[in-house]
Amino acid sequence: MVRIVISEMMQKSSSIGKRGTTEVAKKMVAKYPKSLQDVIEGDVIGPGYHSLVKQLQNRLENVKRSTTPKIRKQKHRSDDSDTDEIPPEQKAAVQDTYGCINWNLKFLPFGETPESQEDKKEKLKKLSQMKDPNPEEVKQLMEKTFYTQRKDVNQGKYIKDLLKEWPFWFQELGMAVHFKKLTGKELKETFTQNLERNGKRLLNYMS
């Protein structure tokens, strides 16, 4: 539903802001309160449409997200400090949105064609049906088909379609390979570092 609404809004205007999504959310909730209103145990939360506004805004940002790389400086954060520092010797890195370095690839890998990418994708599908597929083979195929994976994501394919086309994406190995290619960082290492840094704060907030 959110995808359809934003698609219709974008067709009418490409310069939609939060005010526009808020007005649309208010009208939708007013028309379908039982389905869309923010309600907990019978009580309306706030104006009743904040959740829908957030969903619309997130989808709008995804659609409008720039595919042009931006120059940003990598920030260094010590484990015991919340202050970001940029070492003088650290060079600026070419990054796409949300800290990614390979968000939208322009060209196929050297020596690859659409046909060879499709062959590798089909091989990955077959490997996913095996009980014990060779992890190194899976890793290499996931790395070589990264271009096509990103193309499918950036075209806005649904999760159910991505699961069908790229089954290893939803398993630890495939997820780690894609994350490394996308961000230049190791998934487990990044998760562990952030858990150590922010885990206690998160638990305190939730308790």
Automatic annotation (TrEMBL):
<feature type="region of interest" description="Disordered">
    <location>
        <begin position="61"/>
        <end position="87"/>
    </location>
</feature>
<protein>
    <submittedName>
        <fullName>Uncharacterized protein LOC106511925</fullName>
    </submittedName>
</protein>
